Amino acid sequence: MIDLYTWTTPNGRKVSILLEELGLAYRAHPIDIAKGEQLTPDFLAISPNNKIPAIVDDETGIHMMESGAILLYLADKTGRFAPTGAKTRWELMEWLMFQMASVGPMLGQAHHFHKFNAGKAPYAEERYLAETRRLYGVLETRLADREYILDDYSIVDMATWPWISRFEWQGIDLNDFPNLRRWYLKIAGRPAVQRGYAVPKAVGEIPLPAS
Ligand SMILES: N[C@@H](CCC(=O)N[C@@H](CS)C(=O)NCC(=O)O)C(=O)O
After folding, report:
1. Would the CB of 19 count as within 6 Å of ligand 1?
2. Which CATH number describes the domain made up of 86-190?
3. Are 172 and 202 in contact (CB under 8 A)?
4. What is the pLDDT, as a whole number, of residue 10?
5. 83 CA to middle of ligand 1, Å?
């Protein structure tokens, strides 16, 4: 059994989507970050950086923070959704690191300045909206001649998709990125993604671009 400590955010949903795709038994524990529940000593013992998501695997005794590391751990544990070939393994690392180091942090800044603090810091808003749009362009190019970010559906798609699901918060019209839009809708249609999106609680439908 896996214990998942999570909230209704892109980083949290990455892990619940993978757990649903894998069909692994898990218990979701809501950590309401708006109420500061990530700051309690009990949670700190599992997640030393005070952030969700975190897991405890009672089969191995391993506990982990950092969504990218958790996705790799669960994919390796089950042998699914992560290619292991000499070349494809590094392509996986490349695009997972791109998500963890660029897509997540930069789009997160767009949320902070543009969605939640609009007008307070115009320079920062402009900077992170421009960087967000540039990153959408990188993914658009990557998806021009492929269905998924790697050759097959993988943890890289599961890591990236929840961030793109906040396209409205990021001032993005997905119709401007047709390859990304096609990829986004295909993944949004997966039942496991729909279940994982509603963990630890349902807070509305998956956002869909205007048709
Ligand atoms: N690099 C970390 C980032 C985790 C993260 O930023 N989590 C946010 C929610 S998406 C959080 O727990 N925020 C609470 C806080 O900053 O106090 C990961 O990918 O797991």
Report:
1. no
2. 1.20.1050.10
3. no
4. 98
5. 26
Structure tokens at 102: 């660029």
State mean pLDDT over 134-150: 98
- Say if strands 26-30 and 62-65 run parallel, antiparallel, or are unpaired: unpaired
Burial 128-164 (b: 16+ CB within 10 A, else e): bbebbeebbeebbebbeeeebbbeebbbbbbbbbbbb
Q: How far is the CA of 11 from the centre of ligand 1 (A)?
A: 7
Secondary structure letter of residue 47 according to DSSP: -
Give the pLDDT mean for 136-140: 98
Does the structural domain 2-78 have CATH classification 3.40.30.10?
yes
Q: Which tokens in the block code for residue 108?
A: 């997160």
Q: Give dist(CA 71, CA 60) in Å, integer.
A: 16
Cβ–ligand 1 contact at 140 (below 6 Å): no
Please, what is the average pLDDT of the chain?
Answer: 97
Cα within 13 Å of Cα(190), Cβ side = 18
Domain locations along the chain = 2-78, 86-190
For residue 56, which phi and psi values (nearest 5 degrees)? -125, 125
Spatial separation of the C-alpha atoms in residues 107 and 105, rounded to whole Å: 6
> Residue 211: its pLDDT value, please?
83
Separation CA 189–CA 191 (nearest Å): 6
